[in-house]
Amino acid sequence: MSRLCSLILILAVITSSNNKFFVAAKGDTCDSDNESTSTCEPEIYVGDDNMSSTWEFMSAFSKLGTSWNHVIGEYISVVQGADGKDMKGDEYATEVGEALKMLQVMLKESAATSDEDWSFSTSPLDSFGKTVDDILLAFIRWSMVDNYHDNPEDGNSCPLIGGINNPSSDTDKINVSKAFRRLTAYQHWMQSVSSDLQDPPLTYQSIKSSLSIFSIHVSHDECDRLVWFVNLGKTDLANLKSQSPRETTRMFVWIAHLLFLDEMAQSKGLVVVDDMANIGFWDYMTMLPIQVGISVDRFLISVTPLKAKNVVLMHRPKWAEIGYSLLSWFLTKKMKNRVTMVEKGQENGMMKKVVGGAKFIPTDFSNIEGLMSKDIIAQHYV
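Below the sequence we write its predicted structure tokens.
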């Protein structure tokens, strides 16, 4: 999500390296060719989730067949594409209806002068009862988000952490060219995985077995923002690692469309709540197959029209705290302000400030109080 600057990014980055993993046990000897000729460094073990220092965290990546420098390089490349940019010569509209017509014209001109495929044949529109115009509107509203002003006097303010996307002022303009660039990136990414999405068509029924591997819930909070709850510790890792990359990709693409086609997510904003309890460093870093992680994260962060008002990290293990402290050096002030850390013992109180209370929290999400028995997926698709 354009502002999803949580540690999920590391997962994508680490799985994009080569698939040469080595885990040293205490007393083992090795060299670069994995021959028993010299003593391995005993301080770092990939399977050790009790790392307590920055040096240990950074050094651990060498045991995963990559380096911290590579991780940071990939991380920065993903984050840089998060918000898009205003460019000289961009075309602007003064209201949404005008912007939609302009974007439709841009698509027609692109189709007439290039080999671009604007059929949206791989987009799961039927699954959500949406049209191509609904996709275009999502990208238009994405391009407007940075224009929104927080004005409590307009009656649209939200007391929850992160607030909402308040209506833009009469003097703000909509950058349609920016929306078109992001839409083009979306179209290119969807075409790159089209063979994975078309047979069978992308529907809830086709991805529900894959979805059941993860602990994922989607709902609206007290301010009508869309909330994506993810409990990494409840992931069925054995089934995830045995599942084909194709099925994992299909599931995440379906979820992404569920999120960005939600009108409240577009108009009010998105909140992500990530519970990291009971997830170890090694399991986290090898959770997704090679290239799937980096591809999915680029899709969510640099391609889809998603921007988060708040990213909440709960029950962070020590290695995750170290990782975020390092990654935070590369986040903008705006991104940092959209990350909320929930400390142990403060879960119920903080979640009231995050989503509005127990009635907006799934009953089986975490060890916190939750009263919502059915989320959006269970209500509309199960």
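The two ends are 25 Å apart (CA to CA).
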